[in-house]
Amino acid sequence: MEQAILEFFQSIRCDALTVLFGVFSTLGEGVVVAGAVIVLYWLWTEAGEQLLFTAVSSCAVNSLLKTAIARPRPYAAGVVTRLDVDTPIFSTRGLGDALSFPSGHAQSTTSALLAVSMRAKKAWLWALSPLLVAGIVCSRLYFGVHYPTDLLAGFLLGTAIALFWQLIFGHAYRLRFYFLMGMAIVAIVFAFFYPEKEYLEMCALLAGGAVFLPFVSLLNYRAPEKRWKRLLHLPVGGACAGAVFALSLLFPEILALKFLKWFLLFGAATLGATALFKALRI
């Protein structure tokens, strides 16, 4: 059945659909989802915190499962051919031929969109989110980089993680940092068995959340009511995170420093940026 579905999407390939599904795949790229999450975190204060918890834990779980299961992608197994696309943001190259299950695109977008929808409680978001996830799912089949079961698993895991944090934030809010810390400890333990670069980067983000987010809470920062002041968070937060990222480019290419790079970057984007917002009264 999976092969039949993949062969169908391969049979309908054309220039117009390649552009359309390329847009959907781009929306599900890690850098795009991460950018959207951090922007909402800067602008949305308390609700943005739940989104951040959901996003970092979902990415870590996905990366661990991908690394541990090591399922070959459909094109690597010869089931279908991969549609070769390479742009600065979206590419079907260098994906990791044995990192098919579960789909990161499906899981990250599902968890993030569900978290936003549950907090925002807007009808248009509940209507738009499934359409966006469906487009991203179909795009991964179209390009031949995932099996249908990869996408189904990503969708189910993303839903479960978003619901888990909704439950914690709704009924055990004071314990949220303990849960995040527990997940970070478990993830780091598994890193000794799976010391791959991509997984270590996700562990670093999760560890950054466990370490820095409690200190953000201690700042007792409250965003201003005026929207124009909140918009100032974008250049200030971007400058703070950008400065740390620029410095991290000087780090030697070794795994331990890769971990440190993403750990510090998370701290700059959360604790560092929030401290600046409070100091500047914006």
CATH C-level category of the largest domain = Mainly Alpha
Mean pLDDT: 93
Stretches where pLDDT is under 50 for at least 5 consecutive residues are none
Q: How many helices in DSSP terms?
A: 11
Question: How many domains would you count in the coordinates?
Answer: 2
Structural class: mainly alpha
The secondary-structure element order is HHHHHHHHHHH
**Biggest β-sheet strands, sense, barrel:** none
What share of the residues lie within helices? over 70%
Strand content: under 5%
Radius of gyration: 19 Å
Overall description:
- The chain has about 280 residues and is mainly alpha-helical.
- It has helices spanning about 1-10, 15-25, 30-70, 105-120, 125-140, 150-170, 175-190, 195-220, 225-230, 235-250, 255-280.
- The chain is about 75% helix and about 0% strand.
- It folds into 2 domains: about 1-165, Vanadium-containing Chloroperoxidase, domain 1; about 175-280, no CATH class.
Chart the SSEs and their pairings.
Layout: H1 2-11, H2 15-27, H3 30-69, H4 104-120, H5 123-142, H6 148-171, H7 176-191, H8 197-218, H9 227-231, H10 233-248, H11 255-280
Features:
mainly alpha; Vanadium-containing Chloroperoxidase, domain 1; 282 residues
Describe this structure in a few short sentences.
The protein has 282 residues and is mainly alpha-helical. The protein contains eleven helices and no strands.
